[in-house]
């Protein structure tokens, strides 16, 4: 755990006047840019959060990649392919934004491949049917939007700006997922059952995407003060539930939570207890697909080595030519 104003990288105490000016700038809603002074703990928090986010975009391609070759029509295949390519783009924007904090892409990749860095636990679940493509777009991208829209106002400029375009694309992803669910829910009984099973599989893991409850969230208070976060995990989870329940009703599908009910007094839906033990197990590496996902990334990295080598050789050649000409 880091806290603001302890020590910098060399173990020196951070100057109080710089810390005060930094916080004042954030309080004035001004962006912090890469060359600005920032406390070491702010930098580390952002590197952790942004790299986890980038890794999630990249690993998040895998559950849906499974269905690109199995999509039911050419049209569905084109849409899914475009969606998965968007996710690759999101990963690349966010890796670039993270590099502005002084960490290299190679280092970030290494941390993912050695299991040191985390990514969103939702991507460690399997996608056994086409309806999972619908449920993921609708719920997982839907939850991502809830998380990411407030990040457009994050205090760190490069992260906030990368979120603007990403959120526009996420909204297309959410709608394409909901549209898949709409078609299935209005189809044959077998299709409707397939949609219901996908909702049953995805509902609880998508609620876990908002992270531990506020009582157990280690990073929340400081991140709120720094305006990296604008809402707590539980607030965002509640917003997501309130927005999603009517969408499920419209589809004629049942959310797999017997305790879910509208609360007149609070103006929100009450929901059943989340199985936090499951979340922590998946984070620890014991989810249904953790090993498979990581292995797929390791294989992709190894198989791509010749591309990186060729790019470096080409760059070297360009540099030599440039030097000869000079
Ligand atoms: Fe994305
Ligand atoms: Fe997405």
TrEMBL record:
Gene3D superfamilies, per database record: 1.20.1260.10
Highest taxon in the source lineage: Bacteria
Alphabetical list of Pfam families matching this protein: PaaA_PaaC
MF GO annotations: phenylacetyl-CoA 1,2-epoxidase activity
GO cellular component term, pick one: cytosol
BP GO annotations: phenylacetate catabolic process
PANTHER family: 1,2-PHENYLACETYL-COA EPOXIDASE, SUBUNIT A, PHENYLACETIC ACID DEGRADATION PROTEIN PAA
UniProt name for this protein: Ring-1,2-phenylacetyl-CoA epoxidase subunit PaaA
Species name: Marinicella litoralis
């Amino acid at each position: 755990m880091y806290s603001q104003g302890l020590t910098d990288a060399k173990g020196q105490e951070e100057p109080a006047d710089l810390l005060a000016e930094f916080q004042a700038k954030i309080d004035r809603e001004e962006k912090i840019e890469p060359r600005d002074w920032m406390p070491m703990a702010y930098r580390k928090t952002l590197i952790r959060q942004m790299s986890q986010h980038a890794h999630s975009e990249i690993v998040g391609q895998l559950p849906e990649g499974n269905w690109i070759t199995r999509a039911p029509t050419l049209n569905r295949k084109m849409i899914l392919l475009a969606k998965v390519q968007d996710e690759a783009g999101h990963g690349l924007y966010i890796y670039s934004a993270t590099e502005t904090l002084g960490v290299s892409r190679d280092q970030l990749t290494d941390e993912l491949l050695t299991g040191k860095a985390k990514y969103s636990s939702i991507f460690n679940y399997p996608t056994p049917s086409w309806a999972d493509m619908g449920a993921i777009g609708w719920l997982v991208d839907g939850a991502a939007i809830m998380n990411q829209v407030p990040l457009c106002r994050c205090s760190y400029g490069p992260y906030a700006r990368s979120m603007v375009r990403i959120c526009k694309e996420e909204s297309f992803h959410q709608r394409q997922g909901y549209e898949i669910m709409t078609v299935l829910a209005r189809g044959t009984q077998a299709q409707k059952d397939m949609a219901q099973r996908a909702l049953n599989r995805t509902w609880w893991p998508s609620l876990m995407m908002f992270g531990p409850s506020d009582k157990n969230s280690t990073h929340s208070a400081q991140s709120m003060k720094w305006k990296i976060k604008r809402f707590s995990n539980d607030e965002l989870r509640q917003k997501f539930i309130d927005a999603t329940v009517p969408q499920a009703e419209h589809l004629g599908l049942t959310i797999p939570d017997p305790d879910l009910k509208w609360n007149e007094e609070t103006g929100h839906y009450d929901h059943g207890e989340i199985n936090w033990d499951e979340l922590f197990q998946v984070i620890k590496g014991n989810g249904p697909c953790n090993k498979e996902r990581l292995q797929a990334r390791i294989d992709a990295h190894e198989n791509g080595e010749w591309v990186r080598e060729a790019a470096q050789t080409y760059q070297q050649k360009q540099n030599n030519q440039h030097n000869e000409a000079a």
